[in-house]
Prior knowledge:
7-stranded parallel beta sheet, Rossmann fold, two-stranded parallel ribbon, 9 helices, single chain, globular, 2 domains, alpha/beta
Amino acid sequence: MSDSSLRLCIVLGTRPEAIKLAPVIRAFQQDPGIDTQVVLTGQHREMVDQVMSLFDLKADADLAIMQPQQTLTDITCRSLQGLEAYFQTQRPDLVIVQGDTTTAFSAALAAFYQKIPVGHVEAGLRTDNIYSPYPEEANRRLISQLTTLHFAPTTTAVGHLKAAGVVGDIHHTGNTVIDALLTVAGQNPDCPIDGLDWERHRVLLATVHRRENWGEPLAEIAAGFLAVLNHQPDTALLLPLHRNPLVREPLTKLL
């Protein structure tokens, strides 16, 4: 890689970031004029490793911040400290983050502290309720204030950014999760599941892990699943369980 190459650093820490950034990483890695660095914070561990393996991606650095029962403050502090050291050493020309995770916010802030421009994939999503989703709505609003290149998935998201008067260039790019889907659409992994007959069952695939669903809402969702299964005996529920014990343990008991 020549000294004149663009030095690009892509920071991710969670499964959805890995999925949505995988096509972006692969595209940049195919460009000989770009020196692409991939940094994992470790906000998620096994779940990110699974996605990286699926898309045949390797990290250039891993901050390994994950600890049991870590708080948002823990994630932010350890990410900021690790990224500060990395950015000071590597001096990327641009830092790319995705979405609205605490990793994305921390990376944008760490880049800002080093006066490094930020590119934000999936920019402009809004609910106009700073506590819903929490902390994602606040994260993405704050990231927008630190971003130079806004990559918005929809025209609605573009409108949100323009209405907020953000500084920087706004680009309507579409959603990279579609590119991720197309990348793996032709794969047919051998994944037998005990008790599931794909020929006989109508399969209901669901995922439930959002912070705003913890507690009583999670119990209500589980009750809804059971009602569907009782009413439609030929239906099977396929529910991948998140590793967070606040999600996994109650759903295991209820279902």
